[in-house]
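To illustrate the input format used throughout this study, we show a single complete record. The first block contains the structure-token representation of the backbone; no residue identities are included at this stage. The design step must infer an amino acid for every position from geometry alone.
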């Protein structure tokens, strides 16, 4: 663990190179934060659905999801509660792979992440088509634990971590932006750490 003086020095270096967003502090830990209880996972009954404004809606079993092309990315992770964890290595399925299969309609501009327990969050479609955006099941390099979103979570590294939803079960493509769980409670509709878009 960093000593206070070392942490401050590193944080200043990261701010100077633009890597650590304003208002954030580095951590080597990975705090556990979520809404509700950790849901159970049954690979035999688990399903992932892609629907809404797409030409080819589809549903995948866990086995089918695991058969999709895989990708590994390294990215920083910024929580709205002001901690940042650098150099996370994630592995999973690129959102580009999902979009190529679903074929979003021209009017589809947003994606609603649907998760266990009714949790949702919203993201512009263009943001999900970035190179580092994944549906991840692995973190540095172990499988995700249930507390961190196993079996599957979204990873959108350039936005605050509430946009990287845990226990994701589906993606809904929409024409209009729709507030999700935290957005309805005052969080920002977009959530850019660089601009400190914590609240709307």
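Output of the design step:
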């Amino acid at each position: 663990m960093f000593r206070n003086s070392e942490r401050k020095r590193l944080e200043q270096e990261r701010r100077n190179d633009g890597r650590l967003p304003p208002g954030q502090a580095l951590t080597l830990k990975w705090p556990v934060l979520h809404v509700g209880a950790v849901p159970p996972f049954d690979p035999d009954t688990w399903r992932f659905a892609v629907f809404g404004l797409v030409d080819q809606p589809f549903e995948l079993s866990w086995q089918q999801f695991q058969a999709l092309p895989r990708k590994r990315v390294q990215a920083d992770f910024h929580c709205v509660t002001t901690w940042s964890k650098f150099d996370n290595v994630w592995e999973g399925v690129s959102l580009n792979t999902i979009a190529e299969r679903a074929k979003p309609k021209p009017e589809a501009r947003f994606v609603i992440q649907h998760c266990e327990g009714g949790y949702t969050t919203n993201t512009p479609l263009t943001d999900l088509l970035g190179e580092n955006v994944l549906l991840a099941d692995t973190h540095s390099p172990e499988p995700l634990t249930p507390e961190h979103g196993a079996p599957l979570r979204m990873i959108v590294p350039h936005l605050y971590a509430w946009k990287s939803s845990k226990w994701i079960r589906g993606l809904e493509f929409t024409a209009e932006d729709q507030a999700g769980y935290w957005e309805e409670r005052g969080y920002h509709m977009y959530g850019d750490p660089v601009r400190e878009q914590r609240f709307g």
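Structural context for interpreting the output: The two ends are 34 Å apart (CA to CA). The chain has a mean pLDDT of 94.
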